[in-house]
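Lab notebook: predicted structure, single chain.

Context: the supervisor wants predicted structures on file for every construct in the current expression panel, including those that have not yet been purified. This is the next one on the list. No modifications to the sequence; it matches the entry in the shared construct table.
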Amino acid sequence: MNRTDLASAVAQQTGLTAAQAQEAVSATLEAITTAVAGGDKVTLPGFGTFEARDRAARTGRNPQTGAEIAIAASRGPAFKPGTSFKERVAKG
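Prediction complete. Output recorded below exactly as produced.
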């Protein structure tokens, strides 16, 4: 499912027009992205939590040469699914 498919599903379930649903989906994703980029946690009960996580600096290896390389510390987005979401996916 891509963004267009998601907007179509939202339109069908809510009675919004396709354009309104596309706007709603885009606004929701932008709000989540902005909040997480700003250091906030976005919790959607029953679905999951979006947050930024720090990764420590570490040593890695170049797979071609085997030489050790320094991998810098970084910050990236993370998602932790909620219990009901995990249960529903497990059931299929």
